[in-house]
Design brief:
Elements: H1 33-90, E1 93-100, E2 113-122, E3 128-130, E4 135-139, E5 144-146, E6 159-161, E7 166-174, E8 179-184, E9 193-196
Antiparallel strand pairs: 1-2, 2-7, 3-6, 4-5, 4-8, 8-9
Length: 198
């Protein structure tokens, strides 16, 4: 059956400003029971994951604190133990020095020399070697003077210094200078022990 507009009425496009009725919106679909249950379970599951992460994070932090505190104690003890040997390594040899007049030996060639009286004390647990060549003198300008052999009659002896022993002798440098400190190195190697010249 043909539906034609009533006679005298022609379909025209709506004019601007003219009210045109729109069809009603389709009815909203309601969520089924299954969908509601799934959303609820998903929310609960997500909340459990977040809570688990928070609780787990605080437990991990607690464990880290315990571990770090536990590790600090052992670290602190070994740190203290090496500190004592370091002092022991600096202290096994004690060097003291004082300015003294140069006393020429028979080998003196007439040059100018500066002498320092040095005392070495072995406070360690092993024997150390003493040799004039193991000493140097540093002057107040920072210049280092090696020991000159045989020019001062009171030159430091070459000996093995046992634990608890000490020895005093003279170390002499060439030239006239103001000695600031003497450095002794056991066997020419190592850090050396310094004694300020008084």
């Amino acid at each position: 059956m043909n539906h034609q507009p009533p006679s005298g009425h022609h379909s025209h496009p709506p004019q601007p400003g003219q009210y045109v009725p729109y069809p009603p919106p389709p009815p909203r679909k309601r969520l089924g029971t299954g969908a509601i249950v799934a959303i609820t379970l998903g929310s609960v599951f997500a909340a459990l994951i977040v809570l688990g992460a928070l609780v787990g994070g605080s437990e991990d932090t607690g464990r880290k604190d315990v571990t770090s505190v536990g590790s600090r104690e052992p670290d602190a003890k070994p740190a203290e133990k090496p500190a004592a040997p370091e002092k022991a390594e600096e202290k096994p040899v004690e060097v003291t020095a004082k300015r003294t007049a140069f006393s020429p030996s028979v080998l003196h060639d007439g040059g100018t020399y500066t002498s320092v009286s040095v005392t070495v004390t072995n406070r360690g647990g092993k024997t150390i070697d003493i040799n004039p060549l193991y000493f140097s003198i540093t002057d107040t300008t920072g210049s280092k003077h090696t020991a000159e052999l045989g020019v001062d009659e009171r030159q430091m002896d070459t000996v093995d210094l046992a634990p608890g022993e000490k020895i005093t002798g003279v170390i002499t440098g060439e030239g006239a200078f103001a000695p600031k400190y003497v450095t002794y190195v056991d066997g020419l190697l190592g850090d050396g022990t310094r004694g300020d010249v008084s």
